[in-house]
What we know:
The complex is a heterodimer.
Chain A: H1 2-6, E1 14-20, E2 42-46, H2 51-58, E3 81-85, E4 98-103, H3 109-122
Parallel strand pairs in A: 1-2
Antiparallel strand pairs in A: 3-4
Chain B: H1 2-12, H2 18-36, E1 56-57, H3 60-70, E2 75-81
Helix pairs in contact in B: 1-2
Amino acid sequence: MQHEILQKYPDTSLRVYAVWFNMFPTDARSKWPPNLLTDPRVVHRWDEPKTVGRWFGGHAAYMRPQLTQHSSWDGDILWDSYILYAADARWDDVPGGVIHWGRTIVAGRETLRSDFQKLATHSTRPTSLWLRAPRP
Amino acid sequence: MVGELGHLLDALAVRLTPKIAARCRLVVTVLVLICLSDGRPWTGGTERLVAAPGLADLQGVDELKALFNRDVGKVRLVLLLSPT
């Protein structure tokens, strides 16, 4: 992520929310890797009770059509996952404007890479359709 | 540190010509600066210093929602990660 996306597109107007929580028995806050995502556009949060993973797990149905081709998921707590949103996306009841989401992150990385490539191509035109949320 | 070594060189300067003493002072100053800069004095500004990110506790989904809506206008990427 740091090398393939963030360093490759340093001028993209982007915010990344990296939400960390325990999923493996060996996980712990003390094992958080501070040098993994150092881009200043990344906001890191520790979510001990896994509230975000549970929330997205319970709201995955609405964004199922945007699941990347090689991804699969069915569970209560969404993790090892990314969700990419358009620039004009807003979060009312649920966050709208999902471009794609993937699980695992590795399984969805080609789509993520492709989406960022499109973003970089169109980023000189702020009104680009690509930057708008997809129509339902 | 530079000053203390400078005094030492001043003491030695009685036996050195002023020109040699000045050169010694310059060499010592440069060596001290190299030591103070972790042995990498010539980065020439090509390396961008990046502060280590912090890890704050998330105050529930509402905090993520507030951050998300604060950043309207930017492409946003949510990553759900475990540390290991």
